[in-house]
Structures are given as C-alpha cells and as structure tokens.
Amino acid sequence: MRDTLPDPLVFQTNAAKHKPENIRQPLNACPFCAPAQLTNVLLQQTDMIWLVNKFRTLQNTLQTLIIESTDHQGDISNYTVAYNRQLFAFAFQCWQQLQADPRYQSVVMYKNYGPLSGGSLRHPHLQIVGFEQIDGYADISLAHFQGLPVSETDALTVTISTKPVMGFVEINVHLKQATALTALADTVQAIITYVLQRHYHGQCDSYNLFFYQLNGDVYCKVLPRFVVSPYFVGYHLAQVNDHEQLMAVQHGLRTIFAERGLCQ
C-alpha cells in the first residue's frame, strides 16, 4: 500500500449543473448540431471544429473538444475512409498544438462513445485536455500496451493487452512512424467497427478511445465498455479475459483486418 498518492483531478460541480445530456435522453437538444451558435472556436476545417469546452468541469485544466462531423449519428465506425483520415490529421494537429503550449504539464486526447463510456452527448466528438499540474501519463507503463499480437507492419503494431490499465479487453495500436497517420486512422477504424459490430456477439454499444504520447511515440487504446468491475472501482485491480477469449478477439480482429486489406 502506498504511503502517498498523487493529487486527484478536482471536479467543479457548479460548472456541470447545466451541462447538456442527450445520450440517455435523446430528445434533448444538441448544441453541436447548431455550429453557428458555437463560441470560443480555436480551429475549423470543413465540418470539423476545435473549440474550448463551454462546461469546464476540472480545475487547473484547459478542456477543449473537437466536433468531428455535422452528422449527429456519425462515428469513426461509419465515416468514409477518406473522411476518417482527415479527422485523424485534424485531431493530431490540434493535439500537437496544445502539447506545444508550455502552460500544460501534459495533454491528453480521448473519445467517449455510447451510454457506458462516460460521455453525455451523442454527437461525435473528441476531447483534448491540457493539465496544468498533473502528468496524465504518470501511472501508464509501456507494459500496458504489450500482449497478444494481432498485426505488425513497418508503420504500426497492434496488440491485445495482457496487463491492461482497467480491462477486460484493451486493443492497442503503437504508431512507430509519426508520418503514418493514414495507417493509424484505417486501423483504429477497423478496430472500432469490430468492437461495435462483432465483439461480444454484437452486444457492445460503447467504447473509449485513448491516445498517449510516450517516449516520443504515439500509442492508442480502444476499450469496449461495459459496467466497470467493482474490483477496479474499489481496489484499482485490473482484470483481463482468459487466454481463450483473448485469442477469439485476436481472430476477430485479424479477420476484419484481412477484409479491409490491412497488412498483418
């Protein structure tokens, strides 16, 4: 047991009181469907808009988000290949711009999708958050991205974690060539399509996508989301599926990679 712990993020409840929600209540209005009314826009490219989050709920941070598309029902899984590549290029441009700002000790980029992902709005968006005083990668190890091999090319490596951050299935992509964003976009799109359409007999409706900058390389994780394990909530104990199930996921991913012509 540790004697000391890092300081947690401080959630500002007053800022969250009027935060919109339309995942569980889909008839509620969507602010992202009215782009002309958006404020604090940082950068825009076609339908993609990077802006400061209106509901900044975390102390000592800059919370921003990227509206991915004008399509309220859009997602990485159903964009065209070309549009998804444009989205990744735009998102990485924004992420790198905030990383270059010396005011922030670390900058994270992630995506919530579905009712179990922790998100509040259905409209597709990524989030980029700059932490003034916290290292968002302090508890992340390269071991979290190692495990059962799925695919490897000169540009990137795909694995299924055997030592996940939380569990039960975490699919990792290690981008080995910084210029290979097209390969990353195509690979992540295939993984998310697998998660939503084929994983757990097609019953998974939520996922998280996390990006990491570690030792000069880019990593990302795709997590199918279900109810969080009490072992993780109460004891921070991650769980991983047994080897037989991990091999089933490995086979499923290799199948969809082959269907899409992604090298293995």
TrEMBL record:
InterPro entries assigned to the protein according to its UniProt record, in alphabetical order: DUF4931 (IPR046322), DUF4931_C (IPR049285), GalT_short (IPR012361), HIT-like_sf (IPR036265)
Pfam families for the chain: DUF4931_C (PF20956), DUF4931_N (PF16285)
Domain DUF4931: 11-134, 143-247
Superkingdom per UniProt: Bacteria
Protein known as: Galactose-1-phosphate uridylyltransferase
Origin species: Loigolactobacillus bifermentans DSM 20003
